[in-house]
Amino acid sequence: MRILDTHLHLVYPEKFSYPWLADAPAINRPWLVENYFSEARGLGITGALHMEVDVADKDIVAETEFMLTLPGIVGAIAACRPEGMGFVDQIEQLSEHAHVKGVRRILHQAPDELSQSDLFVENIRHLPDYDLSFDLCVRADQLPIGTMLAQRAPDVQFILDHCGVPDVAGKGLDPWRGYITEIAKLPNVAAKVSGIVAYAGADWTVADLRPFVEHIIESFGWDRVVWGSDHPVVTLTGSLTRWVEATREIVKGASEDEQARLFHRNAERIYGV
Q: Looking at residues 112-138, what average pLDDT do you find?
């Protein structure tokens, strides 16, 4: 079963500035496309969408443009700043590149009120005009504000990153489980099965991940889930190979058609690649 990775981070420190990596020494080094695909191809990953790596504001457009020149990168989700007055100009510039498929503003490390302002909401309501989606990256405790944001922008296609960032290591199914059930009721929200191994601890097992992945699929259904590696963050507690193998193990009882929807078909439709 081939895979389209919807959440690949690449790091080119000689080209761009990544201020946050100073606080993440375990992954504070170059992560190049050649290194990724040397492992990914053997796992059935045939292409990837590059997910912005929270570069310095001055590098946002340049990062996106560069990533789209790399082999195997079939599209990009660019960084954005919907809290700013220049947002529409920014997405107009980004949309000139046919392979920019969406945008993301990291919210799980931002004050809750950032995404609740009228300006933020009004700005992201422009995204459908440019055929762009919005990747929603919030912590489990922020899922209610993520739900409110998606409710206020019903024409925007949202993709919830990292299963809503549950506390896997602490077996924190609740209240995360109820929050997921609620946000999944919104037809303009899809979910990304990604990132959870980073919250699972170094000694995680497939059994630790299973209830979280299964609840996401049960809540959103097989037509509104996509898969992402979150590489290289995935290497903090495992590897790309281990995460792919774990996901395949969790969904091995699903039909071939259902697995195809998770691993590539939904992503091709939702992101338009």
A: 95
